[in-house]
Amino acid sequence: MKKEKIVSSIEIETFSHATERRERVLKALLNLIPKELRNKIEENIKFNTLQGHYGNPIIFYRVKVTRDRGAQEIVEYILSNIDKIDSEIILHNIQERVDKSSFYLRLNKQNAYLGKFTLYDGDDVIRIKISFLPHIRGLEKIKTALFHLGLKETAR
Q: How confident is the model over 95-113, as pLDDT tens digits?
């Protein structure tokens, strides 16, 4: 049975600093995408070269995937691969990760390169914004939606 479509879009952003290998940063970003969607999504990744404080080049990567291009499948993949401890952290501070219609995550870029999705509050992150369809609004509905999409339930 197919799940109800509730995700409007997902936006994924990260930076590649001059000291990092661009292909590794791109791999970290692509590891958040299910294998069967990676080729299709990779061609939609946009990048801009920015200038750092000391004139060093910084590459900003951004991809936005809409519901008709696999957004919900990507969200399900990410949430189902977050471990139980990080799920508890998400639930504990969910009010800080939600606005009216969106949910935000910051994942460790180095771990994403290795295929592990872990929360991280430092600077070297992959930022994710998950936007829901109009009928999913507010903290409780978004929390329910996250469980529907694969976030692990924890003992309460």
A: 999 999 999 999 999 999 9
